[in-house]
Amino acid sequence: MGKSLEYLDIAVKGWMHDARIKMLAALDEDLDVWTKSGRNDLVTNIDKEIEKFYIENIRLLYPDANIIGEESFTKADLNVDGLTWFVDPIDGTMNFVKQHSHFASMIAVYENGKGIRGYIYDVIEDKLYWGGPDIGVFCNDVRMKEPSNDTLRNGLIGIGAPYLIHNFCNLQVVALASSGTRMYGSAGIQIIHVIEGKCVGYVSYLRPWDFAAGKILAEVLGLSVKMIDGAPLNMLVSSDVLVATKNAQRDIAKLIKKS
Ligand code: IPD
Ligand code: CA
Ligand code: CA
Ligand code: CA
């Protein structure tokens, strides 16, 4: 990839810190808000601005990079040959608009389909979770340990609301078999809870930019990141994703039924 990973880390952290300042400032201003696929699917002027800001900066340093950004990708960008960047400028836009909290900014870098760096920024908490297979995972400057391999029975499970409401794949039974269910409306924040050991799993329908960074961080920390039926994820396809401890993944596999 030419430039070193240390160089990449310094650059990306700088952009994400600058983006955080812009997001926090925007919370004190009137946002322009539009719907996308429906009234529960929002995008704001700040999603667009931050994505543009990231893409311009990536292009300056890596002119040949392929960039899959939630708000601007085209079909032509959907490949993972060479260096591919996944950009989710604000993950949890509904929370950004309604709650002014519980949202993240996410960037992931893959080389020929292999994850090399994931970054998930919990903007309000000012905690950047980042790392890759060669260095491990850090929360800001503190190295993270692998979470304990808890079972479903002994842990909380994050579930995307529509999946639970419609009992997708028997997930109501999975929820009842756990210690409790949690829903935060941001894939990034939910995956942080799994890598920190606060939840044993998270399952939701996710798009590539929702899971690209979390997949890298979770796998480095010994967690399982697969489709709910145990099949491997395709980085270019939206999927029913389960991020979980290996024990919880095994427990959930026994309970799910094809929908
Ligand atoms: C959404 C959030 C939400 C998840 C959706 C995502 P966005 O991301 O992560 O928790 O359930 O599938 O699309 O649109 O706010 O970036
Ligand atoms: Ca969105
Ligand atoms: Ca997202
Ligand atoms: Ca987003």
UniProtKB/TrEMBL annotation:
It comes from the Bacteria. One of its GO terms (biological process) is signal transduction. Its cofactor is Mg(2+). InterPro entries: Inositol_monoP_metal-BS (IPR020583), Inositol_monophosphatase-like (IPR000760). Keywords: Hydrolase, Magnesium, Metal-binding. The keyword Metal-binding applies. This is Myo-inositol-1(Or 4)-monophosphatase. One of its GO terms (molecular function) is metal ion binding. The keyword Transmembrane does not apply. Mg(2+) 2 binds at residue 90. Mg(2+) 1 binds at residues 70, 88, 91, 210.
